[in-house]
């Protein structure tokens, strides 16, 4: 539907749409990076060790019967 809408826009409006999409993309990327940085270091050493143990126990297994 968006592609159909873009097809009927005049060139100057396409430029505006491109700029708006670029702004939204950059804002989203900036927000995601900020959220990641805000959460970095939020676990205590004990919590991080426990999380690492859980991941290793649950994810680092090979099931020879699978695939």
In short:
It is built from three helices and no strands.
Question: Which descriptors apply to this entry?
Answer:
mainly alpha, elongated, 67 residues
The stretches of 5 or more residues where confidence is low (pLDDT under 50) are none
Distance between the termini: 39 Å
What global shape is seen?
elongated
Mean pLDDT: 89
Measured by DSSP, the beta-strand proportion falls in under 5%
**Strands, count:** 0
Q: Which structural class fits the helix and strand makeup?
A: mainly alpha
Give a quick account of the main beta sheet: strands, pairing sense, barrel closure: none
Count of alpha/pi helices: 3
Work out the radius of gyration.
22 Å
Portion in helices: over 70%
Task: List the secondary-structure elements in sequence, H or E.
Answer: HHH
Describe this structure in words.
The chain has 67 residues and is mostly helical. The protein has a domain at 11-39. It has 3 helices and no strands. It is elongated and about 55 Å long.
List the helices and strands and how they pair.
Layout lengths: L1 H6 L3 H29 L5 H15 L8
